[in-house]
Write a structure and sequence with these properties.
Number of helices: 13
Structural class: mainly alpha
Distance between the termini: 39 Å
């Protein structure tokens, strides 16, 4: 299935006159803000509902958000030749989500967010060690610098080195693998279908661990559970659509707005103040991943032959 005029995509009227890069930037900013709010809600709702169960509610209500789209365009809108890739991506996303929801209830939000930026570092290392792709010394150096940033955030030997931090890193590893698959899917699949498939898969996948810790949530936190689902679905729509219309290296800088957004929400809702080490380490991780993305883009760009350069 290819993306065309007959296939629904995430379109907003005020975006139509903007350049593709401007659209992608706005979508990434919106997605980053909604992810930050969603993480704050997870921390808040965890006082009543276990994190593993919150992951299920997030998927369940996100699926409900996607049902009108599925009903409008029919089951045929989900027809695809890439079901295997969807299935693998869903398994990775389930592990990533369960680890992440648990992590944000155990460590400060800004610290968890900074550690989540390590995804591209793991993706680059995995491409070299597992997929046997050629990774030059510049990118390996950036990976090394990025992991120095991780050590600064986690401060091994200090109180901040915890199960929560390790869960955040595990989530980043799974998310990195999943993001590579999303970028591949976005070339042929519409953004709503990618998000719908994820919720269709993840709802039963997250229900299994949720049943092991199940408690019936009080009615007063139902709005929080709805926010989890709605913001989760919309954030993924924004992210997927942004990746479909612009290179990852170009939109990635806007994703790092999640750190100040998380810091603001953590301060406003929980009186958490990020340590200076979180800011320094987060900045180092962000800069190293940005360099990797820029380097990969420059290596993918076709080089102009010398005779063509002289002709020009």
């Amino acid at each position: 299935m290819t993306v065309g005029t007959s296939v629904p995509t995430l379109r907003l009227a005020f975006l139509r006159d903007l350049s593709p890069m401007a659209k992608a930037a706005l979508l990434m900013v919106a997605g980053a803000a909604m992810f930050a709010v969603m993480n704050g809600v997870v921390r808040l709702a965890a006082d009543w509902v276990p994190p593993l169960q919150l992951a299920f509610f997030r998927c369940f209500f996100s699926l409900i958000v996607m049902l009108p789209w599925i009903a409008r365009y029919g089951i045929s809108s989900l027809k695809t030749q890439r079901i295997k890739l969807y299935s693998i991506r869903a398994g990775l996303a389930a592990v990533s989500m369960l680890c992440w929801f648990t992590a944000v209830t155990k460590i400060p939000l800004a610290e968890a967010t900074a550690l989540s930026f390590t995804g591209p570092l793991f993706a680059t290392a995995g491409a070299a060690l597992i997929l046997r792709e050629t990774v030059g010394w510049r990118r390996w150096s950036a990976v090394a610098v990025g992991f120095i940033g991780v050590l600064i955030v986690m401060r091994p030997g200090a109180a901040s080195l915890s199960t929560g931090a390790m869960l955040a890193l595990t989530s980043a590893v799974m998310a990195a693998a999943g993001m590579l698959m999303v970028k591949s899917l976005a070339r042929t699949e519409p953004a709503p279908a990618i998000v719908a498939y994820m919720m269709i898969y993840l709802t039963p996948l997250t229900l299994i661990p949720a049943l092991a810790v199940w408690v019936w949530p009080p009615l007063e936190i139902l709005p929080l559970l709805l926010v989890l689902g709605v913001f989760g679905a919309l954030a993924h729509l924004c992210l997927t659509r942004a990746l479909a219309i612009a290179d990852t290296s170009l939109v990635m800088p806007f994703d790092y707005l999640r750190l100040p957004a998380a810091a603001f929400i953590a301060y406003a809702m929980f009186a958490e103040v990020p340590t200076v080490w979180t800011w320094i380490g987060g900045a180092i991780i962000a800069l190293s991943t940005l360099y990797i993305a820029r380097r990969e883009m420059s290596l993918r760009r076709p080089r102009v032959a010398p005779d063509l350069q002289s002709a020009a």
